[in-house]
Amino acid sequence: MNEHSLIFAVMRPRDDNKVEALMKHALKMIVKTGFDGLSMQKLAKAAGVSPATIYIYFKDRDDLILQLFLREHTKHFDYILQDFDPNMDLATGLKVQWKNMVHYILHHPDEAHFLEHFSFTPLHVKAIKMKDPRIAQCMRQFVSNAIRNKELIEMSHELYWSIAFSPLYNLLRWHQMGRNTMGEKFELTDTVMDQALALVLKALKP
């Protein structure tokens, strides 16, 4: 951008509709072609704006991707934490989170795909420090309460997350594929989810 463009970008008021259009089309392009496929020229054309307009709202391509992640990450956890209270007992709290996760991933597949793959990009390290802190605070409170109430074995964050949520993610993946690893038809029903959650709770309890 030249000096005139920079001055104009600073003075021009924010247009939330254009920001929304840019983020919406950026997410679609990333899901379809990968992060390397996100071109500012193609994005501008898809959003119906000039390439210079993008730089009014974002410093560069990485900033756009980072801001998109932060927005979608917050929306994702707002969704997951619906009807959830960190003071719930472990079984009730996990069941609420599981049901919300299933609904989110099945109804927002592009957003879920983007969030999953963003964690493998170099920008993820920077994003960790910028994420909404209330999300981590809420989860820490929930886990701490469960440990204090002797509902949960004290363990590392990585181990807890792997045991508490990885089974659900695998079941969801097979549900979306419509088959299991043996090629047999599979559907994630409430019965299957309840069985899986019962086993997870058994593994987590002291």
Characterization of the model:
This protein has 206 residues and is mostly helical. It has 11 helices and no strands. The protein has helices spanning 3-11, 16-33, 40-47, 51-57, 61-80, 90-107, 109-118, 123-128, 133-148, 157-177, 190-204. It is globular. It starts with a helix and ends with a helix. The model is unreliable at 1-11 (pLDDT under 50).
Radius of gyration: 20 Å
Structural class by helix and strand composition: mainly alpha
Count of DSSP E strands? 0
Count of DSSP-assigned helices: 11
Strand content: under 5%
Shape: globular
- Whole-Å distance between the termini? 60 Å
Main sheet makeup? none
Unreliable residue stretches: 1-11
Helices and strands, in N-to-C order? HHHHHHHHHHH
Q: Percent range for helical residues?
A: over 70%
Report the mean per-residue pLDDT as an integer: 91
Give a brief outline of the structure:
By secondary structure, the chain is mostly helical. The protein has helices at residues 3-11, 16-33, 40-47, 51-57, 61-80, 90-107, 109-118, 123-128, 133-148, 157-177, 190-204. It contains eleven helices and no strands.
SSE layout and pairings?
Layout: H1 3-11, H2 16-33, H3 40-47, H4 51-57, H5 61-80, H6 90-107, H7 109-118, H8 123-128, H9 133-148, H10 157-177, H11 190-204
Notable traits:
206 residues, mainly alpha
